[in-house]
Amino acid sequence: MEKLSEMKAIRAAYGEALVALGAENKRVVVLDADLSHATMTLNFSRQYPKRFFNAGIAEANMVCMAAGLSTMGFVPFCSSFAIFGAGRAYEQVRNSVAYPHFNVKLAMTHAGITLGEDGGSHQAIEDMALMRVIPGMTVVVPCDANETKKAVFAAATINGPVYLRLARPATRVFEQNMSFTLGKANVMRSGTDIVLFACGIMVATAMECAAALSQHGISVAVVNIHTVKPIDRVCVLKWAQRCKRVVTMEEHSVIGGLGDAVSDVLLGNGNFAFTKIGVQDRFGQSGKPEMLLAEYGLDTAGSLARIKTLLG
Amino acid sequence: MLTCENEKELALRARNMRCHIIRMLEAAGSGHTGGSLSIVEIMALLYFKHMNIRPQEPRWPDRDRFVLSKGHAAPGLYAALCEAGFFPEDELKTLRKLGTRLQGHPDCKKVPGIDMSTGSLGQGLSAANGMALGLRLSGKAARVYTTLGDGESEEGQIWEAAMTAVHYKLDNLTAFLDHNGLQIDGDVTKVKSMLNPGARFQAFGWNVLYADGHNLRQLDAAIELAKQTKGVPTMIIAKTIKGKGVSFAEDKAEWHGVAPKADEAVQAIEEIMAGGCK
């Protein structure tokens, strides 16, 4: 069912998707805060210079400019690194975008520890938590290049704020024809012994874990929760109740992210063996992305070790 | 140019707005008296002379926009909107009460005629820039007006936005600095040395104009000049008096965030009415 093919950076897909969206929707405008070469909004700025606004190194200002543009009927996509867009400009997102429920899309790249060498100061491990807690905010974490493109287009179809959490490194690209509906989880693989709920780059890791475990006769389900908010409660409950062993996998702090979103759904709905794979309440640091994933227990080996604690 | 008749009408509007402000704050039992009273003449000129708006069609696409960046002066904005007919006068009594459209700080989702939710200081000028860019991109001739506080200008984002407005040559933007010289903790020059705000904005590249913020003729002339200015945004430094029109509140930082009690309200209304229209 799941065929892994090429590798492609999610942010590269974001850059391409913006240009495609901009071609079909003239109300789409893009703002960046001096990182257009890294967030890949550069493509859009070259194609549609009049609809691109560089806010300078002033993320708070960028978010409020986008709010103003949205009141004029435009659909602004704001980009920077997640640490600045969700972190530094948090209160602007909350008060100038989400409080008036403006139609602003916050597509923040370089989220999580796989930002790599720039280190812990730049690695957002809390952005999902910050965005999830805001009323009316939709939070989407695409798993690959194809899903990123679909998420960008889907975000533009709903009226309201959307946070798109985008990773930096090249990741495996799943099949093109995988369906994508905001708020509806994708079952990547069926199973009965244990379910892995994953988002973003951890979906590929979950698939590798499932393949490895199946070699030992363990039946593993993998569910891609690309929309962390509003979470697909029906799907989460169904698979958790079927498997009874639940693992969440995210490249984010285990506080406030996917793990908490899933546990909120399960609370009061049965007895489950449950563990959260993620950054265990510590900051990131410099290093190559793959080395960091291993250091933080988010690579396949580290994930398998934690999953096995539920298998007894 | 303001005719005598215009001036009389605007002065009457300003007087009514001051009465509204006092009455709604008294009914609410809390709120920001000083900074609401100081922006009254600015609001009167915008809502009753310069801004192209339709109270019966608040979302009219070609309207001029207004952003109250110093959102705590919400009573000043509500007074203008009510006086202009955006909502009934009776509603003013609901200010700050559970279920009201008139929130403690302006909420554009609730109140007709409000273009931007504000209250968290420093954010309104950036939003106004976004609106001005949006108007230009849409090919609309409408203008954007915004009112900032001098204390508010201690927020760094004001200066991010000040750079942006000049960078994008937003000549369809006119900002007012309600320079009443006081903030919650006292004199703006003592809290954070907000000296010479005009020179600061000028250094950032703005067209800076000065006016007595309670002198309708001076304010009117400045707004007209701003409309004719091309290639740069205009900042009108309006020298104002916090608590203007009410003797016991004038120029007193203590009246930043306090509402008048019943007896104080009576005295305030008497003084405002006696001030009359010159």
What are the salient characteristics of this protein?
heterodimer, A: 312 residues, alpha/beta, Rossmann fold, 2 domains, 13 helices, 39% helix, B: 278 residues, 5-stranded parallel beta sheet, two-stranded antiparallel sheet, globular
Write the layout of secondary structure elements.
The complex is a heterodimer of chains A (312) and B (278).
Chain A: E1 7-9, H1 10-24, E2 28-32, H2 36-39, H3 42-47, E3 52-54, H4 59-71, E4 75-81, H5 82-88, H6 90-98, E5 105-109, H7 127-132, E6 138-140, H8 145-157, E7 162-165, E8 170-172, E9 186-189, E10 194-198, H9 202-214, E11 220-224, E12 227-229, H10 233-243, E13 245-253, H11 258-266, E14 273-279, H12 289-295, H13 300-308
Parallel strand pairs in A: 2-3, 2-4, 4-5, 5-7, 6-7, 10-11, 10-13, 13-14
Antiparallel strand pairs in A: 1-8, 6-12, 9-11
Helix pairs in contact in A: 1-8, 4-6, 9-13
Chain B: H1 4-28, H2 34-38, H3 40-50, E1 65-68, H4 74-84, H5 124-137, E2 144-149, H6 156-167, E3 173-179, E4 182-183, E5 186-187, H7 188-192, H8 197-203, E6 207-212, H9 216-228, E7 234-239, H10 262-275
Parallel strand pairs in B: 1-2, 2-3, 3-7, 6-7
Antiparallel strand pairs in B: 4-5
Helix pairs in contact in B: 1-3, 1-4, 1-10, 3-4, 3-9, 5-6
